[in-house]
Amino acid sequence: MNAAPREFRSEELLADVIARLIGDVRHVAVGNASPIPATAALLARERGHGRPYVSLLQSRKHNFFTDGARELFDCAGQGRIDVFFLSGGQIDGQGNVNLVSTGDYAHPKVRFPGSFGSAYLYYVVPKVILFRVEHSRRTLVPQVDFISAPGTSSPEVYRPGGPIALVTNRCLFSFAAGRFTLASVHPGHTVAEVIEHTGFEFERPETVPETPAPSPKTLKLLRETVAPQLAEVYPQFAAQVFGISVPSPERGRVRVGVAWRY
Amino acid sequence: MNAAPREFRSEELLADVIARLIGDVRHVAVGNASPIPATAALLARERGHGRPYVSLLQSRKHNFFTDGARELFDCAGQGRIDVFFLSGGQIDGQGNVNLVSTGDYAHPKVRFPGSFGSAYLYYVVPKVILFRVEHSRRTLVPQVDFISAPGTSSPEVYRPGGPIALVTNRCLFSFAAGRFTLASVHPGHTVAEVIEHTGFEFERPETVPETPAPSPKTLKLLRETVAPQLAEVYPQFAAQVFGISVPSPERGRVRVGVAWRY
Amino acid sequence: MSAPLQSLDDALTLITDGCLLVVPREVSGVPMAATRALIRRGVKRLHLVALPTSSLQADLLIGAGCVETLETSAVSLGEFGPAPRFTAAITSGAIKMKDATCPALHAALQAAEKGVPFMPLRGLIGSDVLAYRDDWKVIDSPFGNSDPIVLLPAIRPDVALIHAPMADRFGNIWIGRQRELATMAHAAVRAVATVEKIHDGNLLDDPVLAAGTLPGFYVESIAVAERGAWPLGLPDHYGVDAEHLAEYARMAATAEGFAEYLERYVYERRAA
Amino acid sequence: MSAPLQSLDDALTLITDGCLLVVPREVSGVPMAATRALIRRGVKRLHLVALPTSSLQADLLIGAGCVETLETSAVSLGEFGPAPRFTAAITSGAIKMKDATCPALHAALQAAEKGVPFMPLRGLIGSDVLAYRDDWKVIDSPFGNSDPIVLLPAIRPDVALIHAPMADRFGNIWIGRQRELATMAHAAVRAVATVEKIHDGNLLDDPVLAAGTLPGFYVESIAVAERGAWPLGLPDHYGVDAEHLAEYARMAATAEGFAEYLERYVYERRAA
């Protein structure tokens, strides 16, 4: 339709990619310090005219839980959470995620915060979307040093959930049958670059499509409708990316993905 | 001290007996439709100057639970309930209680309401006081037809709790090592009468003492201090026994032990 | 999520013949108006779980022939005597009874709430409650003394049916201290509620009200039923109608009297 | 029960060296004033359970040498980066770490709440979280498909330490939606709380407040600590002090900077 280059930020592209991955589901939950997945979930809700239900766990407004900190996990165990997001200090080609440490567990070289709910949610949430902005051989490795949660399980293990995709700053991988497949490369990036910076092996079709840029309609939705909602939870992010500033007495500054800097 | 006959009602005697059994503990819980145990618990609290803590499960005022209907059982499982009361359509000489049915379970002759929490609380509450006003060969049997909860358990079974006594309209039995022992006979009743009306065998000392009548101090406490508190939960009982009438918009009439009439 | 507010009959359409239905104990806010509506509609073959006990509600449903299986710890009219239709149905073998004990039902619902296949429970060993439940298992605990412990399979009801003081137009329901109502809704596939009234605004917006609120996310349909627990009570709102319960106990003592009760108080909707 | 209201230091005497202490996650109302008081007193060898994660609180206690064993799912300063003293203690081997996952800690506390020796949990199988926990067991579920499932032993803390908006003179504490605070108090042998203020009257007398109240029966001691969660936030009351947390992250990046932080903000009581 429109071959002219459009102006958009990489955060907007990533949110658009993730919103498509979310698809038509009932309930998306977004953990802490995840402004881009939160943007994507709110975008999906706008497109779906109120569906899916979006829980931003860091928010008071977009968070219906009243049974304490366990309710998210109980809710997931009941099968009521369709989509969740996970990241990792390391992610490997089998979909294993490592949120604990590198090197020997008893004498780690680098310690990450810890596994959070991954060792449970990765198993029970049908669509887990892996999200790691930094796409490098340091983060995307052949084999994680510690399996916080495995990408797949043997058939006797109860596992209605698992990874469906991995989104980075360079590309989108889909995940099936225990392997990643390069699904699309983001505008401005190349397949060769993806191969160079990926520590694990992955499938790829002969021709790898380019990730579609966000449409003008999507950009308008993001900037005019989603951004103001986001500002309650991620004021700094909303200001940086969308130029939206809403004073929030309850929230401090948000730095994207900083927990994973090492 | 005082050899002159004193005027008291049998409910006052039973409450006094039970209050002594309660002893020095932290927390007494009283189930539904149990006005005499409730009277005893409130009497024990008056004597202990606020200790034990008394939970009347039928009350809003004397009931601190805020975690729903399960909190009583969780609380007992935590070891926070020291005394509880159970009754039974049948009670046998091994301390087994039957709250389910007589005859064959599949084709019962008489059906009682059901086991309630007995199959749990009898095991975990340290002092369970059995209370059955009707002392007859129909209620106190050699062997219950259905064991809602057993009087004792084999050593490998986790069982910090169990029965310590059985109080009836005729006497007080203590319970230890899987058997009842006649501890005292209430004024106006005899050992011969107890033997005649008890369906199970029990130990008894050569001389069986008479259950002490409530002291004037106890009667004063019961009538002036306990009865008004009781009226919130058991208005009919408080009116009948103590002549106290407090209008209560939330409560209907209470008929003592009527659930066990058959 | 838009408000699932409906008429009473429409709200109850989820409760179909053969449904595994969980209802609360007699003092937690029993949906009696909804129960009468279900009887009028003629629901059949319910697997009724009363958490953990019941009084008039189970007795009415049993007497009206709506129940195939009953799973609970006790049915009784309390101060008003035995539950006559329950007692008659058990002695005649008209319904299948799964006798339980209160904390076992709480634990089995919590298992479904937590998405686990079972929950352990102390007690029970050596009782006939356990002996007659072939769906309950005993294992040696792999911790501590390897002592035996009972495992109870999760109960995941098709529908949880509750009554509460109020709901808002977003489907949120204020349940207060009756937190077993939240567990029921979490454990069930779907929750259906009647409420005394509609609260203006969003219950989750006020932190004090939110603390006692079941989020609308779990709630499929809501109908307003004023005094919807009558003749039972609603905690902190109204007490039991003692005269009516005494009348019920008298009438339901015989099958004929019970039929007359249904005619007068259920089918003719006089009191609904 | 009389009111257990005490001074902060007196309220904390229950938390002795070697104590198994459970504390709440970073957004539930963290007793930071109490944490600073514990550091000033020099508590040692804590077995600290953070339900299910922690931020500044665990980092401070670890840095100050109060912790022997840490059991939690994650420690991080969130937007302010890694938790530097936690990270340093793990890489140097100064503390024993028991890595968990959030729902496992919730389940283990609920096991203690329910008086059962263990709770089952889905997930975990095939993870190194499970591989490194020799206190967790796997059995084949005796229900359904005999599939493997993890059993977690109950965690029964000696003390649960919480911070909440208010308490009354009867020891009741209003916790609102932070219901994990109730589970912590139920599971622990004793609960100790700091609160922002004292509520006149009895919290249990008002059904709306009662719905969010932890009964005083579980509470051993309470101290008033205004802005007692600072520099963390208290839900619906105040937010995090972002400048302070950024300053902490900078200072605690080195052992020397952390010592200076302690001197300035903990020992000198400037901000307590």
Notes on the structure:
The complex is a heterotetramer, with 2 copies of chain A (262 residues) and 2 copies of chain C (272 residues). By secondary structure, chain A is an alpha/beta fold. Chain A has one domain (10-223): Glutaconate Coenzyme A-transferase (3-Layer(aba) Sandwich). Helix content of chain A is 28%, strand content 19%. A 5-stranded mixed beta sheet of chain A has the order 3-8-10-11-12, with helices on both faces. In chain A, strand 11 (171-176) and strand 12 form a beta hairpin. The radius of gyration of chain A is 18 Å and the shape is globular. The N and C termini of chain A lie far apart (42 Å). In chain C, the strands form 2 sheets. In chain C, strands 1, 2, 3, 4, 5, 9, 10, 11, 12 and 13 form a 10-stranded mixed beta sheet that branches. A 3-stranded antiparallel beta sheet of chain C has the order 6-8-7, covered by helices on one side. The mean pLDDT of chain C is 95. In chain C, helix 5 (102-114) packs across helix 7 (180-187). Chain C has helices at 8-11, 32-41, 56-63, 84-92, 102-114, 128-131, 180-187, 207-210, 242-251, 255-267, and strands spanning 5-6, 20-24, 46-51, 67-72, 96-99, 118-121, 137-140, 148-153, 159-168, 173-174, 190-199, 213-214, 219-224. By secondary structure, chain C is α/β, with parallel strands linked by helices. Chain C folds into 2 domains: 8-101 and 156-267, Glutaconate Coenzyme A-transferase (3-Layer(aba) Sandwich); 118-153, no CATH class. Classes of the chains: A alpha/beta (262), C alpha/beta (272). The interface between A and D is large, with 58 and 65 residues.
